[in-house]
From TrEMBL:
<dbReference type="InterPro" id="IPR023883">
    <property type="entry name" value="CHP03980_redox-disulphide"/>
</dbReference>
<dbReference type="InterPro" id="IPR038062">
    <property type="entry name" value="ScdA-like_N_sf"/>
</dbReference>
<protein>
    <submittedName>
        <fullName>DUF1858 domain-containing protein</fullName>
    </submittedName>
</protein>
<dbReference type="Pfam" id="PF08984">
    <property type="entry name" value="DUF1858"/>
</dbReference>
<feature type="domain" description="DUF1858">
    <location>
        <begin position="3"/>
        <end position="55"/>
    </location>
</feature>
<dbReference type="InterPro" id="IPR015077">
    <property type="entry name" value="DUF1858"/>
</dbReference>
Length: 64
């Protein structure tokens, strides 16, 4: 599976388990919550006030 900014948080963690630590470093502590199953990386960045380009770079995801 190719991870994009429109992948859910859970898809990201399943595909790239090391991303959990990166997300936590950005203040996203609720990685196992129900929202993570439906919230995309893009949405999570917006909700948490994280610059999308910065988060994408840290996760190794191309900004589209």
């Amino acid at each position: 599976m190719s991870i994009t900014l429109d992948s859910t948080i859970m898809e990201l963690i399943k595909e790239k388990p090391e991303s959990a630590g990166i997300l936590q470093n950005f203040g996203m502590g609720c990685l196992g919550c129900a929202i993570a199953h439906n919230e995309t990386v893009r949405e999570a960045a917006m909700v948490h006030g994280i610059p999308l380009e910065e988060l994408a770079a840290a996760l190794g995801i191309a900004v589209e």
